[in-house]
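Continuing the batch. This is chain 6 of the set; chains 1 through 5 are on the previous pages. Same settings as before, nothing changed between runs. Recording input and output for traceability.
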Amino acid sequence: MKLSVLLKDISYKSAPEQDCEISLVTSDSRNVIPNALFVCVRGTRHDGHEFAQKALEMGAAAVVCDHDLGMQNQIVVEDTSLAYGVLCSAFYGHPSKKLKLIGVTGTNGKTTITNILKQMLAFLGHRVGLIGTIQNEIGSMVIPAKYTTPDAEQLQLLFSRMAAAGCEYVVMECSSHALDQQRVAGCHFEVGVFTNLTQDHLDYHGTMENYLSAKLRLFDQCSIGVVNYDDQYVKQFYKNLPCKTYTFSTESDEADYVARQLKTRPNGVDFVLLGHSMLERMHFCMPGKFSASNAMAACVTLLGLGFGVHEVSQALSACTGVTGRTEVLKTNTDYTIIRDYAHTPDGLEKVLSAIREFAPGRVVVLFGSAGNRDRTKRPLMGKAAGAGSDFAILTSDNPRSEDPMQIINDVLPGLQETKTPYEVIPDRYEAIKWALKHAQKDDVLILAGKGHEDYQVLKDGTVCFDEKEIVTRLLEQKTED
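Output for chain 6:
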C-alpha cells in the first residue's frame, strides 16, 4: 500500500516528499524489513523513538514519531499509539469494517463471556472469530494467543484473516492495557460489555481511577454498551456513556434486565430473565451466582443486537462451558477437583462462594499470587482464600523473577487473619501432590490461579505445567502405590 494512502487516515505535521510502497507497519524495530513503516511507540520499558535511526538503517521507508527527531524520513504525529492502531487498520484494508465486533472488558469474566458469546452465535448459525486469553479462533481453527488483546498489527492481521474466512462476528477480550495503549484504535464495536472492576494491574495503572478510565475507553468506540449494574463503579459512569446502554443485574430491580428465581446446582445455574416486557427461563452449564451474571452479559448483548429472547435462551442452554473456568476435572475419586483462573481477590471470593453453594464437604483451595505484579493485592488474596474455604494450601502461581517465599510471606498476613487452617508448600507440583494425598471424602478441591494455562513462569524461564495432566498423572501414581 502507498504511504500516501496510509497517511489519509491520520493527522500529521510533516511527511517525506517522496511517496513509496509500504511493505509492513510495525512498532517493533526487530521486525523491520525494507520499505516498512516504523512507528515509535512509547512503552512501559522502552521508547520506540530510541530505535528510529536503527529502523531507517534496516531499510524502513519512514518513521512515525511524536516530536522532531531531525530525520529526513520522519512523520510527526501527536500520538504515536493512536496513529499505530489506525495505520495498522488502514494497511490491512480496515478489515474490522467487514465484521461485527463485540468487545468485553472488566477485571473478571472476560474469557467466560467471550467464549459463551462465540458458542451462542455459532449455535444460531453465524461464523464467529474469537480473540482472547485462552486462544484465538477463526471458526473452528485455533490460533495460539500470546496476549489477551494482541498488538495492533497482529490484531488487524487477525481481523483480515477472519474476514477472509467469512466470519460475520468477532468476539474479543479488551484488556485495560490494550485500551490504554490504543491497540483497538481504528475499530468500531457493535457492543461493548463491562463486567466489573476490582483491584488488579495497579502495578501498571497506578490507581483504580486510572484503571477504570482505561476500561471506559472501549465505549467511545461502541454503538451499544452492556454493563453490570451490580458492580460498585457502574452507577458512577453508566448514564454518561457515549452510547446506548443496557444494564443487567442479579440483585437489583433498577437494572434494565434482572435475574430472578436464581438457583445454583453443581453443574450449572438456572434463572428467569426479566426485562423490557419479557420473561424467559434460562439454563446455563456453569455453577454459581457469578456465572449467572456472566450468562446475563452474553444474553443482553445478543438481545441488544436484535436476537429474539427465545433463540437467546436456546443458545445459552446449548453452551458447553469454558476451559479452566470452574472446570470440573474428570476423576474417579470420592471428592471433586475443579480448576479455575481466579487470580484476584474478587475472583477467588466469587468462585469459592459459588462452590460453597453446592459443596457436600469441605471447600479446599490451593492458590498463590503472581510475581512482578501488584504486591498490595497479595494479603487480599490470602484473606479471600481463607474466608471462602475450610482449608487453604498456599503455594506459587507464576513467581517470575521474584522469590516465591517473599510472595508467600506477602500473602500470609491476610490468610492468617481469617484463622482458617492452612499449609504452605512453595512448589506448586508438590502442593498439588499434597492436596490429593490429604483430600477427604466429599471435599471440593479448587486449584485456583492457573485455569487454562499449561505453563508456569519461573525465575529461570517458562516450564510446562498443565494441572489437568498433573492431576491425572498423580492420581494414577497414587492408584499404583
